[in-house]
Fold this protein.
Amino acid sequence: MLCIVDSTIDPYWNLAAEEYLLTALSEPVFRLWRNAPSVIVGRYQNAAAEINSEYVRTRGIPVVRRLTGGGAVFHDLGNVNYTFIDRKVEGEDTAAMFRRFTAPVISALRSLGVEASLEGRNDLVISGRKFSGNAVCVHGGRVLQHGTLLFCASVADLSGALNTRPEKFIGKSVQSNRSRVTNISEHLPSRHRSMSVEEFITYLQDHIAGGTDTLRGYTAQEMAAINRLRREKYSTWQWNYGNSPRYGLNQTRRFPWGFLEVSLDVSGGLIRSCSIRGDYFFTRPTEDVEQALTGLPHSHDAVLTTLSALPLTDYFGPATADELAELFF
């Protein structure tokens, strides 16, 4: 089994590397990696519905879509991600895959004195509190299963970055289940209480992959292929947002100058229809604004740029583009 411990913390690159290792190699792989603060959404999720748009935008937190299914997760440098890639066992269902690939992680944690266990379909928990979400996909007879390991992650950022108001979105995309979370570091016995996240990574490498004997980096050719995937797929708006299933958004808000209700129909990441209703004073028909927004990417930058170019006081009174743009997310 090849062991790869990545030093890059670029989420676009790391997700591109996952695809490359699954599709281009034939050997079994165990990989440890971390991301800078980012939200990683499942393959079939509506990215806009899973995030707190204002929180991630104002903090510059990227949103990246992965290959595997399941729900949205928050990554930061206090979270360690692990990946197993191996051949698919004939007749093995996803539940069996989760049991197979989480077993070494559970064993490693129990050797540290942490009573971890698999709960439900794909969560690892300590005393009923989740510290790891896992996801899987199959390609060409090979299985990729990866998961988070919250070691000393920012629970405040985790809670802030993920959407807590899914009711404003209407659609058939996979929605995340929010669970009570905990950090592994909080459950370490006293003899390991001072362990850093870097030491935790080394421990996992030694316990699961047998030390440095199988440690492997990337060739120049592999780096080029991963960089190409990053550039052409994982860092693109089309992959991360445009691939979201069709959805609707309904938002209402009261401003000092009136009340607005916005309804959007979004497909392929584009605003297909836009309805603005409410109690406000105007000198131009609101349909002008609806038409200007229809066909735009459902992104904050696109909406804000378009609104900023319109004479908004004619449509809504003393409204600003910044406050109106928030209503569309």
Notes: The first helix runs from residue 11 to 24. Residues 2-240 form a domain with the BirA Bifunctional Protein; domain 2 fold (CATH 3.30.930.10). The chain has two domains: 2-240, 247-328.
